[in-house]
Specification:
By secondary structure, this protein is an alpha/beta fold. The chain has a seven-stranded mixed beta sheet with strand order 1-9-8-5-4-2-3, with helices on both faces. Helix 3 runs parallel beside helix 4 and helix 10 packs across helix 14. The relative contact order is 0.17.
């Protein structure tokens, strides 16, 4: 069987050995120096000023939206657009925080929202923010989307949980939005078991993110930020400050284990991305010769950090045919993430207005994916090729 992911970590034996040594010698396992070290390394790698580590990618999405509400950038009833092909934790916080979700269609040939789709939605909806998902390591024309958002004062957020390492000609995925989320869940590009990160260049956002992460208090702010906040709220003693809560927050804190694994895994990330891209391009050659399948367009990408291998079929019957081929061969497959999110039970329950989403419906009905990662053997690749061949 070819599972979605064979190992929890890159270079698993080495990672587990180092993790064991760390745990045996660590004096503290709650959030501390290791988390801060990982944040600094990740911000440098991504090329952003600030990185805030949290306990999951889903928490990262929640924290970004709560930050915007705390700072008055969004208010109850504001409309937030989002990629219709996405994960539940992109959309649920929009609903949970009293905002109005507005689905934006995705292109079956790129799997992502393109500027044409957001322009079309803006003809009928006045958006205050747009939460774009970079699906399976692919991306839309993000620079054009960013320009549209800037022109219309729409706050652009990125869910880059599946796009770590992907680069457009205009820059890295995760560097177009005001804030961007990343996930380190098992089977993502790199794993800390559970874990997520938010990157931003905005110091005000980073400050609030750190408060949102930790109950709304100021313990993880720098000294000048603490002093300013305490003076504004007339908190004059260190004793009082210990249990003073300044704004709405949660407990989204990671552990030192998360921080240690994250820093350790970063050394293997570049090679990991290179192998994923190599695997993808090898499998893509088979798709090009198969008239039953749709070739995903990634001509806008300089580096394709393939999260998984998507199989887009021309119609539902062909999808059923190829899904059966994969399963019969022992290849684990999944739906194309959440598909058209409007067809999910929670969305039907809580959101009254539905959008026409022909592209997302096509992806929902005609697509699935299998795993792509460095631990795939040559035999595994040949097996996947055989599943993709036109017969």
């Amino acid at each position: 069987m070819i599972p979605l992911m064979k190992n929890a970590f890159l270079n698993e034996t080495e990672t587990i050995s180092s993790l064991s040594d760390f745990i045996k010698n660590a004096k503290k396992l709650s959030m501390g120096e290791q988390c801060l070290k990982f944040e600094k390394k990740f911000a440098k790698l991504q090329g952003r000023k600030e990185a805030v580590l949290v306990n999951s990618g889903g928490s990262a999405n929640l924290a970004m939206l709560q930050t915007l509400k705390n700072l008055g950038k969004l208010k109850d009833g504001d409309k937030v657009g989002f990629s219709a092909l996405t994960w539940s934790t992109n959309v649920m916080p929009i609903i949970q925080l009293g905002l109005v979700p507005v689905a934006i269609d995705c292109d079956p040939f790129t799997l992502n929202v393109m500027s044409t789709q957001i322009i079309e939605r803006l003809e009928t909806e006045n958006l205050h923010a747009f939460f774009v998902t970079n699906v399976l390591g692919f991306a839309g024309d993000l620079q054009t989307i960013k320009n549209i958002c800037n022109k219309r004062n729409i706050i652009l957020l990125e869910d880059n949980c599946e796009g770590l390492g992907t680069e457009l000609l205009d820059g890295k995925c995760g560097n177009f939005g005001e804030m961007a989320s990343f996930s380190f869940f098992v089977a993502h590009h790199m794993s800390t078991i559970e874990g997520g990160m938010i990157c931003t260049d905005n110091e005000e956002f980073a400050k609030m993110l750190r408060m949102v992460r930790s109950n709304g208090w100021d313990r993880n702010l720098n000294v000048s930020q603490q002093k300013k906040l305490r003076n504004e709220n007339k908190i004059y003693t260190e004793f009082e400050s210990k249990y003073t809560f300044y704004d709405l927050g949660y407990n989204l804190r990671p552990t030192e284990i998360t921080g240690f694994i994250g820093s350790f895994q970063l050394q293997f990330l570049k090679k990991n991305i290179e192998i994923r891209e190599k695997n993808y391009l090898a499998l893509e050659k088979i798709v090009k010769d198969n008239p039953d399948l749709i070739l995903i367009n990634h001509s806008n990408l300089k580096v394709l950090s393939s999260f998984a291998f998507p199989v887009m079929c021309k119609d539902k019957r062909k999808k059923e045919k190829y899904a059966l081929k994969f399963e019969a061969t022992g290849v684990e497959i999944r739906p194309m993430i959440s598909g058209n999110i409007q067809r999910q039970p929670f969305y039907k329950k809580y959101v009254k207005k539905k959008q026409n989403l022909p592209g997302a419906d096509k992806i929902h009905d005609c697509g699935f994916y299998c795993g792509n990662y460095p631990d795939l053997t040559e035999f595994d690749i040949q097996t996947l090729m055989n599943c993709l061949r036109y017969k």
